[in-house]
Amino acid sequence: MSRIAARFKTLATQGRGALIPYLEAFDPDLETSLALLKAMPAAGADLIEVGMPFSDPSADGPVIQLAARRGLKAGASLCGVLKMIAAFREQDQETPIILMGYLNPVEAYGHARFCADAAKAGVDGLILVDLPPEEADILEQPAQDAGLDIIRLVAPTTSDERLRYVLSHASGFVYYVSITGITGTRTASAEALQEALPRLRAATDLPVAIGFGIRTPEQAATAAGIADGAVVASALLSTLADTLDADGKATDQTLPRVLNQIKDLAAAVRAGEKKAG
């Protein structure tokens, strides 16, 4: 059983959903982002998404765009990101790690080589925002050979027919983009999420995590209670950015403030009740 499947199975027996925080690799530098990654599980992260900085993150709002820019300025590369994950795995063999990013750097690295190296580093799943299932044959077999899950994104606008097709190519979990638009710009209501989940459940047995627009502990608890997990990204990156000095460098407040925010999110998710559906 993969780390992703094992973690969701454990959480299901506990009757709660997952908190899935996001960090951008090398933001604002390698040392700080690695320290943050290593500290996230103890702060309450159940799974972790790590962003692979890219110069044209078309699905992301201004907060993640700026984080990616900081990461690239600090020297981020796919090799560097994988080394960062390998360093994390030296102390943590349990927490699932999902890399999130875009296809262009993976193509430049080489599809099969990337999947093999990612698995060796300790990556569990991939989210490539701009890789539709119709074109995913370039990555599906190498990912399967390496034991990596390919996590698919679906949205409120995804038709039933399209939903079935996309999810037939998914593994690990389903990432439900709860809004139409880019990351971190607005939030879906609890009613809209409750209406969306039965359609997703009818199309797949995979766990469902809700992202795009989850900012507060209350919103995370609601999303994780309705679905199987809540992804929090822009809110954490906003906090990190607020702690940087005038030169964009980390300060003594960077790690404590972000980790305290994760602790607050985790406490709300753990206190929430899992809803049927």
TrEMBL record:
Its EC number is 4.2.1.20. The lineage of its organism: Bacteria, Pseudomonadati, Pseudomonadota, Alphaproteobacteria, Acetobacterales. Pfam families: Trp_syntA (PF00290). Belongs to the TrpA family. It comes from the Bacteria. HAMAP family: Trp_synth_alpha (MF_00131). InterPro entries: Aldolase_TIM, RibuloseP-bd_barrel, Trp_synthase_suA. This is Tryptophan synthase alpha chain. The alpha subunit is responsible for the aldol cleavage of indoleglycerol phosphate to indole and glyceraldehyde 3-phosphate. Pathway: Amino-acid biosynthesis; L-tryptophan biosynthesis; L-tryptophan from chorismate: step 5/5. Keywords: Amino-acid biosynthesis, Aromatic amino acid biosynthesis, Lyase, Tryptophan biosynthesis.
